[in-house]
Specification:
With 239 residues, the chain is α/β, with parallel strands linked by helices. The chain has helices at residues 16-22, 66-69, 74-93, 105-109, 113-123, 133-144, 192-198, 206-227, 229-234; strands at residues 28-33, 37-46, 49-59, 98-103, 129-130, 154-160, 165-171, 181-188. The protein is built from nine helices and eight strands.
């Protein structure tokens, strides 16, 4: 939700696509604030979906140092607020009718997330929604669904972020635009920021790389065993 001198834009929920179809000239927005990036898309309904009319992306590293301090640093919050200020400007310029503005792993974990959200609301006018790992997985699936091949029954979807990686195991039904069935999902605390900090920076020796792979494999094994993913991959039933 955007607060400014004009009326707030209502939240964009699951009925947005049918509502948008009735208002073809309306503009809608999606904002994703992660541990590493701040991304914004503004789109207008078009035949068969949406047409992007504006976009913004900036590396903000909101979760920098979070794994060691437990909180968001002042520098990281300041960087992020400046990026969100750009987003708010675009939302106003495009006269966005409705949108959904979400925050993920860094805000889920930070001890001072409430303070940060209050600052964003008071300084920028954007109401950020912290979503659960399950909701993050659901949104990942919604975004990927039109890309899945209808003749391959299963799909394994990875969403690698700055602070976490969401993995979703799907059963794909026949309709290209149908909703896949989520058979299972897991959120692992491995992202481009958290892994970099945990293993000592951007210089990765062969030994460090092997340690990273071993940790990821160990974390993935329970999920793989639960769903028998390896068997389906060997049978070439997975995309």
């Amino acid at each position: 939700m955007l607060r400014a001198d004009h009326e707030p834009a209502p939240a964009l929920g699951d009925t947005a696509f049918s509502e948008a179809a009735r208002q073809p000239q309306a503009n809608y927005a999606a904002l994703d604030l992660g541990t590493n990036n701040c991304r914004l898309l503004v789109a207008r309904p078009a035949r068969g979906g949406f047409r992007v009319i504006d976009a913004f992306s900036r590396i903000v590293r909101l979760g920098e140092g979070l794994s060691t301090t437990g909180g968001l640093s002042e520098a990281a919050m300041a960087r992020t607020i400046e990026a969100l200020r750009v987003c708010a400007g675009k939302l106003g310029q495009r006269k966005v009718m409705a949108g959904r503005y979400v925050a993920t792993e860094a805000c889920r974990r930070a001890e001072n997330c409430t303070e940060f959200l209050d600052r964003v609301r008071d300084e920028i006018g954007i109401e950020l929604e912290i979503i659960s790992t399950a909701e993050e997985a659901r949104l990942v699936v919604a975004g990927c669904a039109p890309l899945l091949h209808s003749r391959i029954p299963y799909a394994l979807v990875f969403d690698i972020g700055g602070g976490s990686t969401e993995i979703v195991w799907l059963r794909r039904h026949g309709s290209r635009y149908g909703v896949p069935e989520i058979l299972g999902s897991v959120s692992l605390p491995f992202g481009v920021v958290t892994f970099t900090e945990r293993f000592g920076g951007i210089e990765v020796s062969p030994a460090i790389y092997r340690a990273m792979v071993a940790e990821a494999e160990a974390a993935l094994q329970p999920f793989e065993r639960e769903h028998g993913i390896r068997r389906e991959v060997r049978a070439r039933q997975v995309q």
